[in-house]
Recover the amino acids of this structure.
């Protein structure tokens, strides 16, 4: 394992079964993330050990969160719900999958034009039934792409002209042309991972257009340049690396969520830091996270 693994520090010593969907809220100077199986939403301000948490008792899982002008938009297993963090109350927002019981909501992001994208996954984690949706304000939903087992990512280039998507079971990142109207086209393979790399999960794009990917089961995050060339691998002291974001005043601190294997023995768990949120400085700044207008 590389010597610079020691550069990672623990930001939040949580024991999330599956930490996910970490985002930086610049106005609050706080990080938000979820425990998929909690199902719980966490918030912790940078430089503070105090953490707020909201457990979603009405759901079995939370696939993701995004920032909106009216709180957080959560993709829970059966639908999309808005969480008012001031009151802790939730309300139903939408359900584009319309009761398809074989699909559960998963990763989501807001693109740089303020459009919301959310993926699903097949509950058996075997069949390529998952759909990737885009919300069309005022008119409803469209399917951006289909035919996956698990939809993950997504992330957007600095000019918002490319969409990157993690086809997790396919062990590849896809790239699409993103039109001004939100349509996507020209699907192509941006990067393919070997079996021993782990599976691509969360994505983030920095200010130079590099794509950063969390490798579930691979103990690392990688940085891939806009041409699809691997530039850097950063190993973590946890196996199940799930999502990442850039945060802080200069957006030069990388934060990463992790999880732990449900089959791990109690003896192994005692010496494992999986489920914590990690942080380290990087040389290239990230990009501000879009906040969705409602």
């Amino acid at each position: 394992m590389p010597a610079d693994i020691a550069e990672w520090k623990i930001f939040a010593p949580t024991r999330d079964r599956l930490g996910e969907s970490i985002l930086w809220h610049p106005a609050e100077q706080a990080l938000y993330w979820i425990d998929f199986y909690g199902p719980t939403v966490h918030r912790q301000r940078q430089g503070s050990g105090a953490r707020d948490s909201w457990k979603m008792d009405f759901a079995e899982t939370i696939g993701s969160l995004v920032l909106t002008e009216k709180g957080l938009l959560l993709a829970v297993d059966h639908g999309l719900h808005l969480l008012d963090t001031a009151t802790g109350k939730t309300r139903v927002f939408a359900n584009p999958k319309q009761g398809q019981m074989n699909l559960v909501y998963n990763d989501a992001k807001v693109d740089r034009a303020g459009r919301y994208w959310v993926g699903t996954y097949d509950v058996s984690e075997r069949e390529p039934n998952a759909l990737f949706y885009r919300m069309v304000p005022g008119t409803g939903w469209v399917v951006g792409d289909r035919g996956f087992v698990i939809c993950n990512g997504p992330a957007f280039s600095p000019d918002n002209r490319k969409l990157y998507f993690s086809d997790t079971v396919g062990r590849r990142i896809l790239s699409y042309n993103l039109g001004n109207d939100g349509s996507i086209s020209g699907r192509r393979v941006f990067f393919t991972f070997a079996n021993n790399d782990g599976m691509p999960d969360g994505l983030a794009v920095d200010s130079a257009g590099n794509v950063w990917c969390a490798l579930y089961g691979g103990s690392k995050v990688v940085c891939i340049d806009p041409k699809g060339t691997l530039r850097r691998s950063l190993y973590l002291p946890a196996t199940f690396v799930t999502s990442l974001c850039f945060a802080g005043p200069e957006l030069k601190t990388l934060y990463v969520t992790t999880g732990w294997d449900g089959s791990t023995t109690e003896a192994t768990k005692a010496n494992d830091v999986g489920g914590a949120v990690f942080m380290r400085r990087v040389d290239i700044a990230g990009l501000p996270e879009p906040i969705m207008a409602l």
Q: What stands out?
A: The chain has a mean pLDDT of 94. Helices lie at 266-269.
